[in-house]
Design brief:
The chain is mainly α. It has 13 helices and no strands. The radius of gyration is 19 Å and the shape is globular.
C-alpha cells in the first residue's frame, strides 16, 4: 500500500483542526487574530509529528475541532441553524468516540462547559445536553476499552497521570523557540509601527473574547494529560 494512503486521515484531521480553530476563534477575536493563532500551529513539534503519522490522533483532533464549532454555534444561532448545529455536535462527538478511547475527554470537557454556562446563567441549555446525550450510546463499548488500559501493557509508569506528563505535553505543543522569537519580534515591530485603532478596538464590534463556558472547555482539554 502507498504510505500516503495510511497518512491521509491524519492530513485530513490537520486540515479539519486548523479550519475549525480558525472558525472558532474568528467568532470571538476576529479573523486577523484567529489567522495568527492558527498560523503558529504547524510550528509545533506535536502538530508536525501527528499530522503525518498513520495513527488516529490527528483525525480525533480534527473531528473534535468540528465538534467545538458546532457546540459554539448552539449559543450563536437560532431556529433551524441551531438544530443543525445540535445534529452536527452529536455526529462529530459520536465519530470522535469511535476513533480513539481517549476521545471520551471531548464530551467530558463540553459537559464542563455546559455546567459553567448553567451556573453563570441559571439555566440549562437542553439542546446541548440532548445533542451530547444522543452521542452517549457510543460509550457502551468503553468499559471494555478502558479496561484494556489496566492490563499489563498499559499499567506501567509511562501511562500514569502526573504533572510532569502535563508539562511535557504543553512543551511539545509549543512552537519552536526560534520561530516564537521571530514571531515575537515581528509582533513588537508591528505594534510600534501601528497607527490604527488599539488592538482591542481592532477586533471589531462582534468580537468579545472567549465566553466563560468556552474557557472552561479549554481548561478541561489542556488538563487532559494530568488525568489520562
Amino acid at each position: 500500500a502507498d504510505p500516503l494512503d495510511a497518512r491521509l486521515p491524519a492530513l485530513l484531521g490537520f486540515a479539519l483542526l486548523t479550519t475549525s480553530l480558525f472558525v472558532f476563534l474568528r467568532r470571538r477575536v476576529g479573523a486577523g487574530f484567529a489567522a495568527a493563532a492558527v498560523a503558529v500551529m504547524p510550528l509545533s513539534n506535536f502538530v508536525e509529528r501527528y499530522a503525518i503519522e498513520a495513527r488516529a490522533y490527528m483525525l480525533v483532533l480534527g473531528v473534535s475541532g468540528c465538534a467545538l464549532v458546532c457546540w459554539q454555534s448552539l449559543g450563536d444561532t437560532a431556529g433551524r441553524r441551531r438544530i443543525v448545529s445540535g445534529c452536527g455536535l452529536t455526529l462529530t462527538v459520536a465519530f470522535a468516540l469511535t476513533l480513539h478511547v481517549w476521545a471520551v475527554i471531548l464530551p467530558a470537557a463540553l459537559l464542563a462547559g455546559e455546567a459553567t454556562i448553567a451556573l453563570r446563567t441559571g439555566r440549562i441549555r437542553w439542546i446541548a445536553v440532548a445533542a451530547l446525550a444522543a452521542a452517549a450510546p457510543m460509550l457502551a463499548m468503553y468499559p471494555v476499552l478502558l479496561g484494556a488500559t489496566q492490563t499489563v501493557s498499559f499499567a506501567n509508569v509511562v501511562y500514569a497521570p502526573s504533572g510532569a506528563k502535563l508539562m511535557s505535553a504543553l512543551l511539545t505543543t509549543l512552537p519552536r523557540l526560534r520561530a516564537l522569537a521571530f514571531l515575537g519580534l515581528v509582533a513588537v515591530v508591528r505594534r510600534l509601527a501601528w497607527r490604527g485603532p488599539t488592538p482591542a478596538k481592532a477586533l471589531g464590534t462582534g468580537a468579545r473574547g472567549l465566553a466563560s463556558g468556552e474557557r472552561m472547555v479549554l481548561v478541561a482539554l489542556v488538563l487532559y494529560p494530568r488525568v489520562r
